[in-house]
Amino acid sequence: MAPRTSNNGGFKWSELDGMTLPFDMSDMSNQPDDFAGGWVNRVDLDTGEHTVLYREGPDHRFAGPNDIVFDAQGGFWFTDFGKTRARDADKGSLFYATVDGTHIVEAARGLYGPNGVGLSPDGGRVYVAESFTGRVVAWDVQAPGKLHSPQPTVVEATKGHFDSLAVEAGGAIAVAALYHGACVVAADGSGHEYVEMPDRFVTNIAFGGGDMRTAYLTFSGSGRLVTCAWPRPGLKLAF
């Protein structure tokens, strides 16, 4: 299966202490002046050829597609983060779509910076990390693209800010935590712990390696992709 990728449509950028930040420091907005929406791509890794699968949901144009995770049926969940402006910000959504570009549903809306998305080991729950609130929220999955309720359960609320996430084989949610490296959230809501990293802007985390105990992290503040040993195995993705 060719990878599907999300394209957020671009940002404004600022420099701070040698770091490149995806927003304008003067007014904290991130929507570029020439913004025309985001989309979801299909990419051929051998040739580099890419095609647009989706530019909009059932009733509106995407404002910043972000993270993607595939389920066992071959469809995928993804978040639409939205954009911020000087005086207002979009509320984001959780979508589900098929890989052939023919079917998409908006499963949940009204989210505050939905960023990372992942599935529990049994596929029965879908998790989203909200950047603005520092929360991990979850929904029970009734069927591919269908939730038992559009209202999420708050798994954990922190004082920080979140980016993308990955799920451990044991079910815990590992979230890229802005300013604090990574945050491991217990799936039962019993707490969380931080794994500090030498970069203030860790924006992605994924697991790999033969035993799935290698964590791959993007250090966006310094523009690096790094690996480190992880104390527990990550969950192998469906695709």
Search tags:
239 residues; mainly beta; Neuraminidase; five-stranded antiparallel sheet
Q: Explain this structure to me?
A:
The chain is mainly β. The protein has a single domain, classed as TolB, C-terminal domain (Neuraminidase, 6 Propeller). The chain contains no helices and 21 strands. It has strands at residues 4-7, 14-16, 19-21, 39-43, 50-54, 65-70, 76-80, 92-97, 104-111, 114-119, 125-130, 135-143, 146-147, 153-157, 161-167, 173-178, 181-185, 192-195, 202-208, 214-219, 224-229. Strands 10, 11, 12, 13 and 14 form a five-stranded antiparallel beta sheet that branches. Strands 6-7-8-9 form a four-stranded antiparallel beta sheet, with no helix packed on it. A four-stranded antiparallel beta sheet has the order 15-16-17-18, with no helix packed on it. The model has no long low-confidence stretch (mean pLDDT 94).
Q: Name the poorly predicted regions.
A: none
- Estimate nothing, just give the exact number of structural domains: 1
* Percent of residues in beta strands: over 45%
Radius of gyration: 17 Å
* Helix percentage: under 10%
Distance between the termini: 8 Å
Query: What is the string of helix and strand elements?
Result: EEEEEEEEEEEEEEEEEEEEE
Q: Can you summarize this structure?
A:
The protein is an all-beta fold. The protein is built from no helices and 21 strands.
